[in-house]
Amino acid sequence: MSENVVLDAPLTWKQIAAVANGAPLALSDAARQRIVHARRVVDALVERGIRGYGINTGVGALCDVVIDRENQQALSRNIILSHSCGVGEPLARPEARAVMAAQIANFAHGYSGVRIETVEALLALLNANLIPDIPSRGSVGYLTHAAAIGLVLIGHGTVDDGKGKISGVEALARIGLKPLRLEAKEGLSLVNGTPCATGLAALALSRATHLFDWADAAAAMTYENLGSQANAFAAGPLALRRSKGLDEVGASLRDFLAGSPMLAETAGTRTQDPLSLRAVPHVHGAARDALAHVAEVVDRELASLTDNPAVSGTPEAPEVHSQAHAVGAALGLAMDSLAVAVAEVAAISERRIDRLVNPLVSRLPAFLAGDSGVASGLMIAQYTAASLAAENRRLAAPASLDGGITSALQEDILTHATPAAWKALAIADNLETILSIELLAASQAYDLQPRGRAARTDALYRRIRSEIPTYADDRPLNGDFARMRTLIEGGTP
């Protein structure tokens, strides 16, 4: 069981990712008190009849329609039901857990005003691994994803319990609850803000961080196989280009290739290597620099309230503020940036795969096949990598510029933060497959030139071969891709 994540100060993206991957989440006493205080402020606003968006008014273009006190509960329930418009396959369980964790973290700032009972119900579902089915498509921002979670709280929707689908009512019963009757503002808060984008962004950062380490490993194996120059990654010359990411990648490559007999044999045979080999620190390093910037943005978002309206003050002097804090422009831009960075790492990996299988440049048997002509080897594996790299280029088009107009011109600019995060995850998934192909191709190349390898590349090669034997056109290659992906997901290189 993973260690508990305690929600007290604002969570970081790493903590959200930990919860997404199974860690329990708990509220500190201070967070609980902030939630209770904010609810008392909302109750005071309702009692005094102070106008507040979504508290005692309609939402969207109906924001000037005043809702009397008797209908405020109905408004909250109706918001959940009417906003449940998501379509498509549900998010995977880790993605859904990430969204729930970010949603609870947003409420814990103490400016939303949902009841502590509502937050505790969300926590109980999360920690019992009863995960609402959240349709992955149909959102321009956050509303439809979040509404799918709210549905379960009121006894609708469906839940994935790890074994199958159960109803929202049954899921609540398993944690000892009946469907909630939402109070004023709760319906709006449950569908509002950027937790959907923030949760998915945290998971995208986690996956990219992990895959970038494997990308360095794959590049090192390919570099060694292709007889490249031993000094291209020397610390002194690399330091002339100022980049923390470049320095990190250079150090990683030097560590992987230290003492390589294969590189010692080819030293001085070329003036310089092709860019897909020579520029690995520059491309992988730039991607790491972009990731570090995105991480700062996501952590800032997690430290911010993204509900609208925000409530503050005291029950004696309640205040409500209609701002645009739910707009996810910063996240949309950041996720578009991460998507391009991950796609770039995938693109250079695909180019390295081509160099491994292409007899015109590899000096190895064509397509790494033991019997060229009779066997195709990894010829079509490179096609698969090229296809996924091309798909990444399409996915990397900026979502944050998609725009659009909704709610009768009331919401006349859209930043598409949640779709931007979702496609960054899709690109990361493609990167994992492309890296799997490169690692398998590099291992196959080692098989065809059994000379001494560097200690670290040799250790990784042996790990791969302990799970996946040499390929001899004797089985479907996509099964090998799946096994290699499992190895990648299971640890560090």
Automatic annotation (TrEMBL):
It is an enzyme of class 4 (lyase). It comes from the Bacteria. InterPro entries: Aromatic_Lyase (IPR001106), Fumarase/histidase_N (IPR024083), L-Aspartase-like (IPR008948). Its EC number is 4.3.1.3. Keywords: Lyase. Signal peptide: none annotated. GO terms for molecular function: histidine ammonia-lyase activity. This is Histidine ammonia-lyase. It comes from Ensifer adhaerens.
